Amino acid sequence: MFVAAIIGAIAFLPSVTLNIALALGAPLGLYAMNGRHRVVPKEVRRAFIMPIIMQFVAMWFLLTAGNVLPPAASNLLPRIITTIFTFFFSLYMTFYMATVLFSTSRKEKTVMGFFAVVTTICYWATAFG
């Protein structure tokens, strides 16, 4: 469970980094949103703020459930709440993985798909661990 949480968090970092870069206007649009835009339009960039926050929260629950974080951070919520949220984010990652793997963008499918599969497996392993 400890190792799966660490691997899952590391594999999740490219997705978080990509969303931050896209929100800031980096020309990496071929790796997200079915490759619709090379550079995400300014009007759409604000839409990346909520997923970025959600991804950091999801990573916190993964690391908490895997007992990676120090006890002070891990004991902020009761264990049952952490477990429920870990299962929730496992399901969320499963849907995210499906959207990435069925993307029409070859770059998103191959590069981000790999990380999505690894992250999803690690979330489920940590949730059931």
For the structure shown, list the relevant keywords.
129 residues; mainly alpha; 6 helices; 72% helix
Detailed description of the structure:
This protein has 129 residues and is mostly helical. Helices cover 72% and strands 0% of the residues. The chain has helices spanning 2-23, 42-45, 49-65, 71-74, 79-101, 106-128. The radius of gyration is 15 Å and the shape is globular. The mean pLDDT is 94.
Distance between the termini: 5 Å
User: Uncertain runs with pLDDT below 50, 5 residues or more?
Assistant: none
Task: Name the average pLDDT.
Answer: 94
Strand content bin: under 5%
Derived from helix and strand composition plus strand pairing, the structural class reads mainly alpha
* Outline: globular
DSSP strand tally: 0
Helix content: over 70%
Based on CA atoms alone, the radius of gyration comes out at: 15 Å
Major sheet details: none
Number of H- or I-type helical stretches: 6
SSE sequence, one letter per element: HHHHHH
Summarize the entry for a quick read:
This protein is mainly α. The chain has six helices and no strands.
Topology (SSEs and partners):
Blueprint: H1 2-23, H2 42-45, H3 49-65, H4 71-74, H5 79-101, H6 106-128
Helix pairs in contact: 1-3, 1-6, 3-5, 5-6
